[in-house]
Design brief:
Chain A: GO terms for molecular function: ATP binding; hydrolase activity. The complex is a heterodimer of chains A (about 375) and B (about 625). In chain A, about 30% of the residues lie in helices and about 20% in strands. The chains are: A alpha/beta (about 375), B alpha+beta (about 625).
């Protein structure tokens, strides 16, 4: 894949190894469907004396189109946050340009259509949730009635009605994240930038966040998110750009990037043992190589969410299933309501293997 | 209180200085703003050129100006400013700045132990104490809240969620400034009330009884007891039950005689004043009776001070020398005198009497009769006809305001008829157009009386002390606003502590402006007064006196002097550009002296504050705009 032109569908044929020069000819498509466009964007951090410290971003060219979820992926220090800050005008490019809604990124006016959830929710600790949202509403020149209504909607959306009068300093990390999200949505933005949206959330929160992101996309909003939680990116993003040390290494549709071309996966239920053997024979007859034939395992996320849902439906001690281990640990989540404030449990372990395709399509078509 | 020439200016005189436009505040303001713009453009260009290259840098600067004029200023929304101001306000309040009000109350409570109500002028002591305490406390607070807020926001990155909303740099700056001004206002109000109560109650005292009372022809003359180391004499006229005591330490009491022959003494009155003075023009005459610009100097009156009123013309060297009003002395027993000419002496302004106050100094060239004070005389004279009343003799009371009055009628012996007529002052002593002269002479030969223009004034009206205190607090409020503006300005491009230090340096330079002007004046006119900073240091180390020649030979001498000149001239330019804070602080002196703070003075300070706030706002805007918030 060597281009990021609008014709994405056909770029999936090759699966270029990471590290190949990702950028070539620029497309001329500047139509209104391009929401963010970076042109040869570079950022060098300098120290006080103007000496070069870090080359954080090197000639980045990406386009984010209307209505898609675009993921910026990369290890720590790969330039994801720098990119987002450049898009927001929080940083000025060393060279190159960023256009947001066809305006320069440093223009204030573009912010009217933008919602931004920072890496950590940098909010005023001495305000409560309602005051916070009201304050950000005022910054959009919203009328009192509009603000009230919008604050109500958002508190419901992020599930913080119960904690609306508590100061943010008393909030758990997850709750702050929710307020942060709510403030990003206060103006019903067309473009939403999410910096590590799932950090600090528990699995339920992550699920809800992902559902919300998808729901926002379905409302026609454009979303740019950056994350190093690969599973999240895989689950929600339409297209991703993978950055490494400030360089764009890969860009394309998630489904295309993850498709392993010469492996075929079949999901079936109710197959008898004979039928399976027959299939093995068929595969052998065609000269193909059967790699595995197994009962699929669910992800930890699925298991966890199932247990929680079940526990909510039927509170009380849960009978540990025979297949599970003898530790009755699964009882715990039942005690809490879904908007549990506890810091996130460990992330589902499923994502690391995503790149090699063995799990492709397990969760989402 | 010794007023300086600029204190007498009306607002428009201050602004435009008719006849001496180089000295005008308007010119100074314009030059300052133009300089700031030119310097701003230069600095902006240098920074952007370093960042983007020389060509692109030019466009960056042009874009910043275009943005300000085309989008940011018109797009500035009051409701966003209010939202940000509310945030700044809440932030400060939640940081428990109101604690300072508590601290102030504690200071007042402790001050009760240390302020001596038995001093000569307790009202001055109390008033200047509360105003000074408030002033420095509020200025320190303004320094702290304004300098740390924005850097902290940037450090905590809470600013990210603000600048990614459609918030303009103008709104962030104005929001902060207004929010902090609101905090200061909320704190000044209780402090003002506490001050008023403290002064009012602290000066209150009661005399419990009368120690001596003699009745002569139905008229009772007596003495009160000694309370707080003073006592009063009083008179109750025949047939009256109430009388007044004399003025001691600026106050008097009402004494009432009860039916059983005992007396009750009321609370002190008249110590908290706000006199509205009406000044005249002063003309000195020397011992031969020839008119002179000033009287005799008895010390180094003319050496230092009072340059501030010359504005730019002093900086560029057009106006030279000081223009301080110091006491000028008239010699006793000669034709020397000080002649005051008052305008607008009308029946409307003085319906019952013509009250006037004396605030005069005495200089003894020999000890003389140590028991009695130096005597002077006052002659009321019609400047047109030359008609004058019999000179009124008085004894000088130094360092206090001697309140006197001229009755509207006087008795006149008509030489033709031989009868004594009762004549009206307005008909004979005051001219048709309302002018009147008072001649001040010293009666004791070889002794001297010192006055300035503000040493003798008519007092047509009186304002209330509470209102005067409010005005003094208004002046503190203006200083606070100015410091907040400077603090916010520095905090847009410096880190919190550095911004605070920078603001503090500005304040200190502003406060020491007169000394810097002095030093420059001495260097300019080759007066040995210690020289600039390096020379002073050398003198300190060598333990040389200030007024001797610098005891360093040859090249070193030249080096020291020229380095000093550079430093002093630079400091002079900076200090001229900074607000004249000592002038604003000195409004407290008006309140303490019981003189109504001139509205013109307050108006000048307001306009100056507004100007500096505008300047700080513009500078803040460009710095914030040019700053990478996330860097």
């Amino acid at each position: 894949m060597d281009t990021d032109s609008t014709a994405v569908a056909d770029s999936a044929d090759e699966n270029t190894p990471a590290g190949a020069a990702p950028v070539a000819a620029r497309s001329t498509a500047t139509g209104s469907d391009v929401v963010i466009e970076t042109r040869n964007l570079s950022k060098i951090y300098k120290d006080f004396w103007g000496r070069k410290k870090v080359h954080a971003l090197k000639s980045l060219d990406i386009e984010v189109r209307k209505g898609e979820i675009f993921g910026l992926l990369g290890p720590n220090g790969s330039g994801k946050s720098t990119t987002i800050k450049l898009i927001l005008g929080l940083l000025f490019p060393t060279s190159g340009r960023v256009l947001v809604f066809d305006k320069d990124a440093t223009e204030t006016k573009k912010n009217e259509q933008i919602g931004y959830l920072p890496e950590e929710s940098y909010l005023y600790q001495f305000l409560n949730a309602e005051e916070t949202l009201d304050f950000y509403g005022r910054l959009f020149d919203m009328s009192g009635r509009q603000r009230k209504q919008r604050v109500e909607e958002l508190l419901t959306l992020v599930g913080l009605q119960g904690a609306r009068h508590r100061q943010l300093r008393e909030y758990s990390k997850g709750m702050r994240r929710r307020v942060g999200l709510a403030q990003a949505l206060i103006n019903d933005p067309d473009l939403i930038l999410l910096d590590e949206p799932t950090t600090g959330l528990d699995p339920i929160g992550i699920r809800e966040m992902k559902d919300l992101i998808l729901a926002l996309r379905d409302q026609g909003k454009t979303i740019l998110l950056c994350s190093h939680q690969l599973g999240d990116v895989q689950d929600v993003c339409d297209r991703v750009a993978i950055l490494h040390q400030g360089e764009l290494k890969e860009l394309g549709r998630v489904t295309d990037l993850l498709k392993v071309q010469d492996v075929t996966e079949v999901h079936a239920s109710g197959l008898s043992e004979e039928a399976k053997n027959e299939i093995r024979e068929v595969i052998a007859r065609h000269g193909a190589d059967l790699k595995s034939m197994d009962n699929p395992t669910a992800t930890m996320e699925d298991l966890f969410l199932n247990i929680v849902r079940e526990s909510e439906a039927r509170p009380g001690a849960r009978r540990v299933s025979a297949t599970a281990s003898d530790e009755p640990a699964a009882d715990e989540p039942a005690a809490d309501e879904p908007a549990a404030d506890e810091p996130a449990a460990d992330e589902p372990a499923a994502d690391a293997s995503a790149a090699d395709g063995s799990q492709a399509g397990s969760d989402k078509s | 209180m010794n007023l300086q020439p600029d204190d007498f200016w009306t607002f428009s005189e201050w602004l435009f200085r008719p006849g001496a436009f180089l000295e005008s505040a308007f010119l100074q303001g314009v030059v300052l703003i133009v300089l700031a713009i030119v310097l701003g453009l230069l600095v902006g260009y240098v920074i952007s050129a370093a960042r983007y290259g020389p060509g692109e840098g030019f466009y960056a600067v042009a874009r910043a100006i275009r943005d300000l004029l085309r989008t940011d200023l018109p797009g500035t929304s009051p409701s966003r400013i209010v939202a940000l101001a509310r945030l700044a306000f809440k932030e400060a309040i939640r940081r428990r700045v109101l604690f300072v009000v508590g601290l102030f109350v504690v200071i007042l409570l402790l001050a009760g132990w240390f302020l001596n109500p038995e001093s000569d002028d307790p009202a001055r002591l109390y008033i200047s104490f509360v105003l000074t305490a408030t002033n420095y406390l509020v200025l320190a607070l303004a320094l702290f809240i304004s300098a740390f807020s924005l850097p902290q926001d940037i450090e905590n990155r809470t600013i990210y969620t603000i600048v990614t909303k459609p918030v303009r740099a103008t709104e962030i700056v104005l929001g902060r400034m207004l929010g902090f001004v609101a905090v200061g206002t909320v704190m000044l109000i209780p402090m003002g009330l506490a001050s008023y109560i403290f002064v009012d109650r602290g000066l209150d005292h009661t005399h419990y009884g009368v120690v001596e009372a003699n009745e002569i022809d139905g008229r009772i003359v007596g003495k009160t007891d000694r309370v707080r180391k003073h006592q009063h004499t009083f008179t109750i006229e025949a047939g009256e039950t109430q009388g007044l005591t004399n003025f001691v330490r600026g106050h008097r009491h009402v004494v009432t005689r009860l039916d059983d022959g005992s007396f009750t003494i009321g609370p002190p009155t008249g110590q908290l004043r706000a006199r509205i003075p009406s000044y005249g023009e002063i003309q000195f005459y020397d011992r031969n009776g020839d008119p002179k610009d000033s009287g005799i100097d008895v010390g180094a009156e003319r050496l230092a001070g009072g340059y501030g009123s010359a504005g730019i013309s002093r900086l560029i060297g057009v106006a030279k020398g000081n223009r301080k009003l110091e006491h000028s002395y008239v010699e006793g027993g000669t034709l020397g005198m000080a002649e005051f000419t008052f305008d607008n002496v009308t029946r409307q302004r003085f319906p019952d009497k013509i009250p006037f106050d004396l605030s005069i100094r005495a200089y003894r060239s020999f000890k003389g009769d140590i028991e009695s004070g130096i005597r002077g005389s006052l002659t009321f004279k019609n400047p047109d006809t030359g008609f004058s009343l019999t000179p009124k003799q008085f004894t000088v009371e130094e360092y206090q305001i001697d309140e006197r009055e001229l009755p509207l009628t006087f008795e006149w012996l008509n030489k033709e008829t031989g009868e004594v007529e009762t004549r009206n002052v307005f008909d004979y002593v005051v001219t048709e157009d309302g002018r009147m002269q008072i001649l001040l002479k010293c009666l004791d030969s070889s002794q001297y009386l010192g006055v300035t223009k503000s040493g003798l004034y008519l007092r047509p009206a009186e304002s209330s002390f509470a209102w005067n205190l409010t005005k003094a607090y208004g002046s503190i409020w203006l200083q606070m606003t100015m410091i907040i503006a400077f603090g916010v300005m520095f905090s847009t491009f410096l880190s919190g502590p550095v911004a605070m230090v920078a603001t503090a340096v500005c304040v200190l330079l502003g406060f020491s402006a007169e000394s810097i002007y002095d030093t420059r004046h001495f260097i300019d006119s080759n007066i040995e007064r210690g020289g600039g900073p390096i020379e002073s240091l050398v003198r300190l180390v060598k333990q040389d006196a200030m007024t001797t020649q610098l005891d360093v030979e040859g090249v070193a001498n030249t080096l020291i002097k020229s380095a000093d000149a550079v430093i002093v001239y630079t400091m002079d330019a900076v200090a001229t550009a900074l607000p004249n804070l000592p002038r604003m602080v000195s409004t407290a002196e008006y309140a303490a002296s019981g003189i109504d703070i001139f509205n013109a003075v307050l108006a000048r300070h307001s306009v100056a504050t507004l100007g500096y706030c505008l300047l700080a706002f513009l500078i803040s805007y460009f710095f914030l705009k040019a700053r990478e918030i996330a860097a």
